[in-house]
Structures are given as C-alpha cells and as structure tokens.
Specification:
alpha/beta; two-stranded antiparallel sheet; 9-stranded mixed sheet; single chain; 11 strands
C-alpha cells in the first residue's frame, strides 16, 4: 500500500491481543497496534518504553499480523500515533478491512484528518500531567458522539480543573467524557466520591488491564 506514491511504513513498538482496559470499550478483546515515538512527556506516562526503538514495518505486514488474531476490534495507540505520517493511512486501511477501529491520541496533534469511521479517544491534559500547554483546543469542536474525551487526573486540583473545562467547553454535550485517576497518585474512591457529589454526567474509568496484569508491557 502506498501514500503519495511511496510505500507506507510505520515504526512499531508492539502489536498484541488483549482486553481493552479503558474507554467505553473496556473489557472488549482488542488487537493493539502501539506506534513508537511521542513528542509529549506527561509526568504520569506509563508507556515510556514506546518513546524510542521499535521496528519499521510495512503497512501490509502490519495488516497481515492483525488479521492473524481474528479479532474484529483494533486500537491504534502509542506513544503518540499521529506523530507518524503513516498513521492516517493505517487507520483508513484498518477501516477498509472491516475492523472496528479506535485511536488513542494525546490531544496535542490535529485530529481533523482521521478517517471518520474511527472512534477518536482524545486526551485533555490536566495540569498534573505537566503538558497542559500542549492541549490543541481546536480539536474540541471536531469531537462527535462517535468520539470520546479522556482526562487523566493526579489530584483534587486536577479534578477541579477538569470540572471547569467540562463546563467551559460543554464537553459532555459533544461526546462521552471519561475521568481516570493516575495509578498510585489519586485514589479511585476519592474520584468516584467527587463525581457523585457534583453529579457530573461523566464516566469514571480505571485501567482494567492493570487490575488484571499490573504494569506488564504488552497487556
């Protein structure tokens, strides 16, 4: 497969079959394609091993491996997958092949070019991430009910920030909004209590894959 007349290739950290641990697809068997590289350095990042290294692979090779899992659901993640030029072609090819496709992206890069068949899972970085300034706010008007917005929170201050942004941009009227605690920094019970107290129309999530397997890569 080519892009602008050239064969499409991407730098891949790993491809694996697991249960989706986050988003409204949590618990669903999924093939993950983890692309290498990320321009952000969030303080709580749990996939630093994907920043460098990886293997350059052709699009056809990637699609062949995904097909071998015989799983209809695929998630393209990172790192920051949109940092690679070939990511858009990969997403389109996966949709063309009939998969139900989601993209996990930091929210720092433009999502406008993503195939509309893809469910875009977009982060909005809270201050505790250290990368609040990288939020590309022009992405917000592009969100649809087919997408999801994720806010990972490290403290009560992050929660109050998130609550203010939800109101400011009317986020829950655009798409499902997910709030998640940083493992080891914010107690899930505390976040749950605040959401219930404030009657926020959001979905709380914990990382199911970590509950099952811990912090093991490829899970």
């Amino acid at each position: 497969m080519t892009q602008s007349g050239r064969p499409v290739s991407l730098r891949i950290t790993e491809i694996f079959h697991s249960l989706q641990g986050e988003t409204s697809r949590s618990g669903l068997p999924t093939v993950f394609i983890r692309l290498t590289g990320c321009p952000l350095r969030c303080s709580w990042c749990d996939t630093e091993y994907s920043f460098t290294g990886g293997t350059t692979r052709s699009l056809d090779d990637i699609l062949a491996e995904v097909a071998g899992y015989h799983c209809p659901t695929v998630c393209v993640t990172g790192g920051e997958p949109l940092a690679q030029k070939g990511c858009l072609a990969l997403l389109g090819a996966l949709c063309d092949a009939g998969y139900s496709v989601s993209l996990e992206t930091s929210g720092a890069l433009d999502i406008a070019g993503v195939d509309p068949r893809v469910s875009r899972i977009v982060d909005l970085k809270a201050p505790g991430s250290g990368e609040e300034a990288r939020n590309l706010l022009s992405n917000i008007p592009l969100l649809t009910p087919h997408d999801e917005l994720k806010l990972v929170l490290a403290s009560e201050a992050d929660y109050e920030w998130a609550k203010a942004r939800i109101a400011e941009y009317q986020l829950t009227e655009r798409c499902p909004v997910l709030l998640a605690p940083v493992q080891g920094q914010l107690k899930p019970a505390d976040l749950a209590a605040w959401i219930l107290r404030d009657r926020l129309p959001v979905r709380m999530q914990v990382q199911l894959h970590k509950v099952i397997w811990g912090n093991e890569p490829g899970r």
